[in-house]
Amino acid sequence: MAVLFLGTNPVAVKVAVSEVPVLPFVAMRFTIAGLLLMILVLMLGLDRPGGRDLLSMAGIGLVGVGMNNVSFTFGVSMTTASDTALIYAAVPIWGILLGLALGLERPTRWGVVGVALAFVGVGVVVYGGLGGGGGVSLEGDLLVVIATVCWGSYAVLSLPLLRRHPPLVVAAFTMLFGGLAAVPFALPGFMSAEWDEVGRGAWEAVAYSTLLVAAFGFYAWQRGVSMVGANRVLVYQYLITFVGVASGVVLLGEVLSANKIFGGVIILGGVYLARRR
Questions:
Q1: For residue range 123-158, what is the model confidence (pLDDT) as tens digits?
Q2: Residue 217, φ and ψ in degrees, nearest 5
Q3: Whole-angstrom Cα distance, residue 183 to residue 240?
Q4: Distance separating alpha carbons of residues 75 and 88, to the nearest angstrom
Q5: Span 154-170, pLDDT tens digits
Q6: Are 99 and 262 in contact (CB under 8 A)?
Q7: Other C-beta atoms lying within 10 Å of the C-beta of residue 54
Q8: pTM of the model
Q9: What does DSSP assign to residue 186?
């Protein structure tokens, strides 16, 4: 279920921001999703963080949720959902690089080869945006790349917190902090937007991305990982990419060009090698 919701999210976001301003969308989406998860935390009686951990969650939420999704949403609005899904397949690479920088991972031969291949694959996909045809843009692809860096950082930086707190608690607080951080920047958009002209389809996309992707999808992903083990997660990451590309082609009529297929294969192959032990 998490794969289905996370994979189709680029399509939902693209539909939503075709009528809803980007910053208000990000602020609404993650503030509401964070509040829903916070209610669940309170209902379950889970311990809440304090002091240094709370500050850490605020910082991680700002980068891993706020900056990530502002870049992601602007990027999706400028490029295709299938390009977004392919570039997002490289998220583990940024996590590996940050882990190496922080001394959490040791470089291996296959890891170096995999990282290099993944970079080449991202370059192939982004290169396709130079022409600006078919709904693809270089600027949009590069914004999605920035979002992958933020999301990869979130995965690594949240590890110490996950050792001390349940995944639901970490998700709730970081998501809420990320949403609230976007609110001041979104206020002008809230004031100037013509909300009465936003159609039903856009609001349905907002609800889908907020409730099923951000709230339930994230929780289901974390819960699933805790049940099947981290070593099997890579298979599901591949499926998210497949669902994302397929949904863009089927639901939005996007063209799956040769460079996208080639670049996607290189990215996924690089991620596989980088994660090989």
A1: 888 876 665 556 678 888 899 999 999 988 887 888
A2: -60, -45
A3: 29
A4: 12
A5: 878 888 888 888 888 98
A6: no
A7: 13
A8: 0.85
A9: H
